[in-house]
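Q: Okay, next protein. This is Efflux pump membrane transporter BepE from Variovorax paradoxus B4. I've checked the sequence twice, so it should be correct. Can you predict the 3D structure?
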Amino acid sequence: MNISKFFIDRPIFAGVLSALILLAGLVASFNMPVSEYPQVIPPSVVVHAQYPGANAKTIAETVAAPLEQSVNGIEDMLYMDSKASGDGHLYLTVTFKLGTDPDRAQQLVQTRVSQAQARLPEDVQRLGVTAVKNLPMITIAVHMVSPKGTYDNNYISNYAILHVKDRLARITGVGDVAIWGPGGYAMRVWLDPAALAERGLSANDVADAIRRQNIQAAVGTIGSAPTSADTAFQLNVNADGRLKSPEEFKAIVIKSDARGAITRLGDVARVELGAEDYGIRATLDNSPAVAVTVQESPGANSLQISRDVHKAMKELENDFPEDVVYRIVYEPSRAVQSGIDAVIETLLESVALVVLVVFLFLQTWRASIIPLIAVPISIVGTFTFLLLAGYSINTLSLFGLVVAIGIVVDDAIVVVENVERNIARGLSPREATYQAMREVSGPIIAIALTLSAVFLPLAFLSGLTGEFYKQFAVTIAISTLISAVNSLTLSPALSALLLKGHGDAPDAVTRVTQKVFGRFFGRFNRTFDRTSEAYGGGVGRLLRHKGALLVVYALLLGGTWWLTGHVPGGFVPAQDKEYLVSLAQLPEGSTLDRTEATMNKMNAMALKHPAVLGTSSYSGLSINGVTKSSSTALTFVLLKPFKERKGISADQVAADLGREFGSIGHAFTGIFPPPPVYGLGTLGGFKLQIEDRADLGYDELYKATQAFIKKASEAPELGPLFSTYNVNAPQLKVDIDRAKAQQLGVNTPAAFSAMQSFLGSYYVNDFNFLGRVYQVRMQADGQFRSKPEDIGQLHVRSESGQMVPLASFAKVSQTYGPDQVTRYNGFTSRRGAARAGLLVGPGNGGHPADCGCNLATRDDVRMDRPDLPADHCRQQRSLDSSPLRSLGVLRIGGPVREPDAAAGDHPHHSDEHLLRAAWCVAHEGRQQHLHPDRTHRACRPGVEERHPDRRVRARARDGGDVHVEGRDRVLSLAAAAHPDDVAGLHHGRDPTRSFDRRRCRNAPGDGHLGVLRNDRRHAVRPLSHTALLRTGPGA
């Protein structure tokens, strides 16, 4: 049956059908979200809690731990990590499987948080615990400045809160809007401890007086029913309960006596309308500024959000006070739009080349226009189905269209060529079309189905890499199917209408074409014929040497296989995002003023570079999870558009500035590119997590982290690794002699409460101002908390009413501790990072599926990889043998040596350790475990090593082989290649080049992107390398 005969006889119907496909695609293209890559960032919910005055350790133990215990195990959760900082803030990020409804995830987290509320400290409960859904990325940042200095940052920050923040938060797709700067207004009560002690008052007396006199009272109504019949009016009663101004707060009565003496708040404190938080200072090009950062919701269109923010700010600008302006310099979506524009430009160039080639070979406008009409119908029509599938317009789907152009034009060319051939045999155009379609309909359908069968299986890949491949493959498959439909409907109908018999007189357009291009076409045809004859003769001669051809073919296959294992590869190519991230880490305990001065110096260096557009800096902000620390600073170095930089790449700018920053000797400085995919980390490269799974303490965690990074950094393939984790932050410790305090009549809780009130930013209650609710904060004035000796001068009231200084029963000493505490999946952890663009070797050989091999070393520590489920090898080999296998696979293998004593890890004490390190690599998952080597008995027969998290045993055999239970294979233990080779890393693939996917089994409790895990099943998982530092007999 000739399928196309119906459309050949009804060309209008064929034209209308194709027009509908084209129009539907056009409408869909304007309604699809636009992004750089498909949605590959798992949705997350951020839980925020405050505990004013508490240090990082206290927050981690009293706030983070209860919340994590309650949240853990929530449906569809992948992992969670928390960051507790010394300024009293906790951020707990719960990450869910890709595809999880973010609204539902937020509800689930909020429910679990509510269940844990009763276990949290009272101050935390009073301030509230929030759960917000957003992506870990800043979509756009609006900087507000006062160029002439008319207004300070406190005023600008509050203006942004009142008039800008809420407006931006209402934009569709926005997840959260934050103010980076002083924060909102707060009534600051700066106490004078000496004046309080002189009057026999404590900080609690002040807080109680504020609570009693700054309260919103509901005082009722006069004349409300039921009442007497002669009552004429019903009147609401008002009273000034909540205070509104510093003067009103100063008038609060703290104490009075029978003689009429009154002590007011203004007598013992300085009261002002200040800022809620002084922990971060923002600058733009080294000038004070306030940053309004916008984060998008999962699945939102970042480009549309940026456009809406620009539009909203132009509207709001009309109402700005004089000398308040805004600038938008940090906008990653600009680079995204530039990348998409480049792909669209490539798409148009491809269309132009197709037009040129088709016209060059067919040489008549009638024959050329038929396949050229097929291109826009197939390409544009694809958008309809992409919209129905929930896809976006991104670089990968556009790349798919670029590849599809050459495919979709082929079917129409086949139709036209066969119609022309039949016309040459003497048939009329219509009869020639009938005959041609009888001949080629089957092949066209077969080709479309074959190509679809090649690409569509990629749509069923799971995980992160699957999301990248999926839209690329589906785009090609859909466009191919539409092309086949078009070749069976519109192309034959147009062929019957437009093509002419070879004996017919040429039309005017044909005559002009032949006159202009006839001579060129003649030379081209003669050259092409000679080339074709020469090629045919050469093939004939080669066929007489079949053996040599097979050898060459085998060599090519071997070379391809060899290159697959040695050409650098990775997740996605490193790209110029038009900005860099720099950081400064001063010695622990450095003041915010010192940190700001250092960052200003770095910014001055950056602004002199010809490729730098500006700097957006945040002193007091740490790159480690974007938490607060007075000794750290973070800067976004904004680059000029690439076309304006005269070929200066972002890497070159980073290298130039890195050398200049190195001249700052009193601080650790660095400058890094952003991650290739927005939201997958803060910097490029990879991250690692070190977990303390046995609660050995921060000192042991620090030793293991530093030793691991020290030895790993000696591998040239990795380059410098770093971690901002430090347990040597200068701190003070107050030791209370409880027996002596009891003798003096002082309750220990009263002493702790006094220190919290005087030294911490103690939250009392709220007040109303400018239609908003702000906090009342109480703290000792600056001159009374500037030296360690000031702690001893704080007074506590005893049971007899006497004011007792803390120095009489407490001793203040210097100590050290962590400035920040991070936790990962319920365990204290520390993260580290490496530079982007690192090269990681292919391991110690073997098939990529052999990630269950054990790697042994001498001394007390070794690294091995846990066994894999029995079906893993089949899954991996099938993946590696398919076109899905990319050119880059990150493999970490080889020996691991124990840190030497100079590094702070004594071999005899290492048997006490149980530390787990997770290499969070952006593009693939692998779990590795560090165990004590126990060389003196590891190779003896009968010794078994049991993994603590699963039912797998590895039996050590003489000769260095390990038999793994449940697997019919023997894994050889690798020998130590070098005493400083921490992980046996070799030269190999670059994780900044191409897509990649690995399969590996990981310990329960870890996961990413919807992985199902048990001892018999484990899906592809592209998240993290993990390693377990295990020592001790019980390990």
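A: Here is a summary of the prediction. The longest helix spans residues 508-542. Residues 42-136 form a domain with the Alpha-Beta Plaits fold (CATH 3.30.70.1430).
Q: Noted. On to the next one.
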